[in-house]
Amino acid sequence: MPGYIGAIRNYACFYEGTLLVAAFNYPARVTAYERDVLQNLLTYSRFLQLVAGQIRDTEEAFHYTIQALARAAEANDDDTGNQIVRVGSFARELARGLGCLPNFCREIALAAQMHDVEKIHIHPDILRKPGRLTPDEWRLMQQHTIYGARILGDAPRLQMAREVALHHHEKWDGSGYPAGLQGEAIYLAGRIVALADIYDALRNKRSYKPAFSHQEACRIITVGDGRVQPGHFDPAVLATFQRIASHLEEIYETLKD
């Protein structure tokens, strides 16, 4: 510090809370106008700080509301709150592996948690039924993605969540529902969450199936077992899954029930 003694002179500064605006070494006397400019800069900076805090609080409240709605939908099923968090985490890592932009990866982690919000419309006796569904029950289940899209509505902030809810049961080969879409006609977010959801479903016990190990779940996804076939998935998403499967297993072990 000794080298700086006397180096700063003719300065003006204003502070409020944690903010400080300062100007040093003016070549002439600081005028009243220049002091006003600095003070206005401090006021504007303080205003931006307050707005940023409000935006942050609003975003946190939005995330909490989304997660609360997702948890409410899961109350009708055997799933727990951890299931929606796992699927969101799997989807985020798959998106990263595909090279998606950071904002997309952050958004899909939240949107994926809403993939089954429509379960709030389905009677728990159907969701938890241990045997095969009747034709009428199956038709009702195939409508649940449409219910989910309606619940989420047309708000721009929920666009990806709506796409996920509507398309996560569509299949790359066109054998999915509700519209039988094929290939890239399915939204990318829906294609990613489709695989994330299947992996989590295979790992967990259901009323109609046992839990599978990570190795067995990977085998079913990549080779097929009659119900699940590799042709159901976007080839790029499937290749990414195979590449990062060990990382997804780590996430599952961290967040398992």
Which key features would you list for this structure?
single chain, 257 residues, mainly alpha, Hypothetical protein af1432, two-stranded antiparallel ribbon, 10 helices, elongated
In short:
The protein has 257 residues and is mainly alpha-helical. The protein has two domains: 1-74, no CATH class; 80-255, Orthogonal Bundle (Hypothetical protein af1432). It is built from ten helices and two strands; from the N terminus they run ββαααααααααα.
Summarize the structure in words:
The chain folds into 2 domains: 1-74, no CATH class; 80-255, Hypothetical protein af1432. It is built from 10 helices and 2 strands; from the N terminus they run ββαααααααααα. Strand 1 (12-16) and strand 2 form a beta hairpin. By secondary structure, it is mainly α. The chain starts with 11 loop residues before the first strand and ends with a helix. The protein has helices at residues 32-74, 81-97, 102-111, 124-127, 135-142, 144-152, 159-167, 188-203, 214-223, 235-255; strands at 12-16, 19-23. The mean pLDDT is 84. The protein has a two-stranded antiparallel ribbon. The longest helix is centred in the N-terminal third of the chain and has 43 residues, at 32-74. The radius of gyration is 26 Å and the shape is elongated.
